[in-house]
CopG family transcriptional regulator
Amino acid sequence: MATKRVNITVDPETLDEWYRLAGRKGMKFSTWIQVMMEEFIEEERMIEEYRQKKRSES
């Protein structure tokens, strides 16, 4: 899979805490962000499909 580099702004304290906790589990920030984005996309697609189905039934 090709990747695209992006810059994001996060609260430094939150990021430090995330690294502290996630580091114990061997998680990488970029991998975690990728997973969260994929989950968000999946949820939003399900919502769109549900709304389209409801509209077509009306």
Q: What stands out?
A: Residues 29-57 form the longest helix (29 residues). Residues 28-58 form one domain. The CA atoms of residues 41 and 50 lie 14 Å apart. The radius of gyration is 17 Å.
